[in-house]
Amino acid sequence: MMNVRFGGQRAAAIVALAACGCSSSGTPAASGAAGFTSVGTSGGASGVPDNGAGGALQMGGGASVGQGGTPSGTGSTTSTGATPGTGATGSSAGGALSAGASSGAGGASGGGGAASGGAAGMSGAAGMSGAGGAGAEGGKPPCLNDPTQLVMIGDSYVNWITHTFPADMNAVSMLDIADFAVGGTSMGSGGIGLIPPQFDSALMTHPKIIAVIMDGGGNDILVPDTTMFPQGADCKAMGAMSPNIPDCQKIVQKALDAGEALFLHMAKSGVKDAIYFFYPKVPTGTWLAQDPNGMLDYALPKIQAACDGAYQKSVMADPANPIRCHFINMVPVFDGHPEFFAMNDLHPNPMGSKAMAAAVWARMKQDCVAQPASSGCCAAD
What is the pTM of this model? Predict the structure, then answer.
């Protein structure tokens, strides 16, 4: 797609599929693998706060063996959450589906909460009340001491002429978040350029980044590299049939691989949290794509799983520099709101981008990502 510069910002046409995500129903911990459930607008409203270090949600069950939680497999039982720092090691640290956590396990001021306790099952009651406990393993996440520690990267769902997402994020957070996103860029192939180098550009002027708001991966499909993937043009036109096309599967996998490599690079550079949002179901028959929703549906659980797995992979690569990925699925945010899209377009309009910004910031507050010391949920330097 073509680049357009408005007010000093580059923008280029396209949405992006994204390359990873953290489910509101539970994030991966040091020894668990997350399930593939969709998330709501605020992240943990229906499940366990993200970043529960004691194990991850397994669709219908509690976490597998992990640090934190209680050895009986019944989940935390009071609002204090699990024992901070270590907890007990049990065979089902987070509790089974029917047990869950009672009284908002992992609450904001709980003794360790989701940060060091096990993750509850799908029916656990942690939800939004568990916001403050979602910190780094065995302790609180770092406080945002300077707005330059938080940046945005991505494609046209972050930076594009039809909407106002960067300004909306600044308004809802009351911060001045630097935007390095370029419309039209992709994660692993296609597009007009790649997203990973945007992070390197951000580091040049923001050397102490602790959190990154991002999307990415859609232009891999929407502006495919048909030299590398000859069937790529069919991926955005065949709807539910697209996932059956081998090249479409390969395109998504290449984006996932690039996204996972980016997470490890960010972790090594000192980033503690990535806030990764995925796209809504988009209008069909637009100027950009006949029907890419088949590939969006195909990619979503894979992207979410990659994001959920970022913590474990980063610990394996370098235990001293873990990163957590907080996945936000925008499907529920846009569901029933056709007015959130620009006319004859799959990009959001200002109403849509305000809704996205609200969902992103709600999740960041819930998980205590890039919050000020006054929040009480983070660890000041």
Answer: 0.68
